[in-house]
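Fold this complex.
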Amino acid sequence: MKRHHVRQCGLLVTSLLVATSSAWIGCSNETAGPIVEQKTAVEHGEVIYNDSSIAGTELNTYSCATCHGETTPDGPIKMGGSLAGATKRTSYWAGQEVDLLRAVNACLYYFMLKDKAWTADDEEARALYAYLEFISQDAPGDALPFTVVTDIVDLPPGDKTRGQKAYQRACATCHGAAHTGAMRLVERAPILPEQTLSEHPLGEYTADERRLVFVEKVRYGAFISYTGQMPPFSLEHLSDDDMADILEYLDLYNVTSK
Amino acid sequence: MTWWAVAFTRALWIRALPLGVFLSGCSPSDPTVIFEYAPYEGEAFPNKRTPLTIPEGGAAFVTNSYSDTVSVLAIATGDILGTYPVGRDPVSLDGPHHIAVSPSGDAVYIGLSYPVVAAAGPHASHGSSTRSGYAQKLDGGDMHVVGQVRVDYNPGDIVLSEDGKRLVTSHFDLKLALANPTNLEAARATVAVIDPSQMFLTGSPSATRIKTCVLPHGMALSRPDGATLYVSCYGEDSVTIVDLNAGQVSKRIPLGAAAGDFGDPTYGPYSLTLSPSGALLAVGSTVSNDVRFIETSQGELNSDLTLPMLGSPYFAAFSADEKQIVVPLQSPDAVAIFDLATKTELARRDFSGDECPLPHQVARDKSGDYLLVCEGDHEGPGKLLWLNSTSLDVKRSVEVEVYPDAVTLLYKEAQ
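Structure:
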């Protein structure tokens, strides 16, 4: 049985600074004995689903919930889709995987940089399964459509206003605000578009190619000709129109001068 | 979401820290809460795969290199028993290339070659970016992946010794050859030797590399223990013999007097097939377009026995009595059967249209029929053809997936 220790109090702290400086900040656990609360495996699984530390590396800041869940019209785009129904599905990743555990391990390995795959005996894997089974109860078991765009072609310019919203929903979680990177989740995610443009200088790349870098990276993610930690956006999660809107918002139809 | 889940979402580092050092803003009287999680009692991640049962008459295993799948077909009926996704990467092309099945059928081995597929996009010119190949082990019972070992770039062929204890991949490393046009030693690529019992999902021991020759491709292992490895060396116009017990090349057999300088092959030996008795090696060369033979007892080329071909020969098969050989040919696409004693063509089937684009490998079924893999156009499905052993008439044709390029057969009796 796994024990998680936490002090119950109102304020949640996310700062690693606080965590790593073992500064004692006015809390003492000598005054009261610990309270033991019994939790179910499903509850444990929900914690794991939301926990980036399961990867076992500080290089990872994602949890499953960063990329998976229902996409609501105004909320962040969950490019990994909802996992409700996952335990009933018989194929994953557009048919490239047929075992749920392998489908999960792909995310742990490629995105969350976990070096050792889960086995079906690992306690965390089992608890996550309990949670997935729980959220799958009333969900259909159809395979998720997941169309990876492999042919990278230029898109006609989109709409800036729509692009701002699409950027907010699709890119800002990881890359932070455009031009500044403010609030980005991943340190290695470049500031868009400036950092990427400077890494693809004119001369080495044509203006059109510099724009296509954005399309290509969004469509391939960490795969095909790329590595890294960015997930691919399939056609189901980001249409070509949304893509073009984002390109317009980032002012990429005018990259000759940058 | 309940409060505690939120608490854990945010307190990402909790487990790494000793108790009590991590929350600010608590009042001294807040008690410590310890959560105890009940273990999951059900069966986590149950195996939902349908077991693969080898039917009477055996099964043909075909790698579909551009679909990342293996098709398994019943030889007697042509029914597709299953199409199994393989490889490591859920998005990119793993390119399962050749395939070997253990005699008992309990394990299936494939080489993952990570082919560079021409694509549009700004980084298409970086397209030659290479990824190490892998040898992957599948459970013959339901084709799930049980192990993998990294090998070198572009594994061409994969062979398993009859006793199942040695697995070898060859590395058709064109980049290495091109990068070292004047340095023979540096241009030579390796074969990788793997202990199949030591293939795990993570943490498999490294394969043993043996530097072999320029552009090693087709391979065959002596029977039963695979102590001797034969390799066709495209870039050196030779067949190289590797002593696997000693871990080194023991002999290089030039394929003829006209053997070219390395990098400029006159013959271009590509495929290799060992005869049923192990006495003869057939070597298909795609530059000179002929099949030559090596007597394994002497380790010498049989210079009297060269079969000129109309097109480029690919992976051939001997008849059971070793008197004939069936050769798939490309450009023009055909399959032909030759008598070795008289060096004559006994029958030929020319393929037109989509009958059998790009024949790649032929295997002899116990019934005497030959099974031929046709690559197709590399965009749509390819095929497996059943051919009559004397007339080469097409008895059956079954579509598989994209760019199939190898076939190997397994019989139930062996199980």
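Residues 1-25, 125-129 of chain B have pLDDT under 50 and may be disordered.
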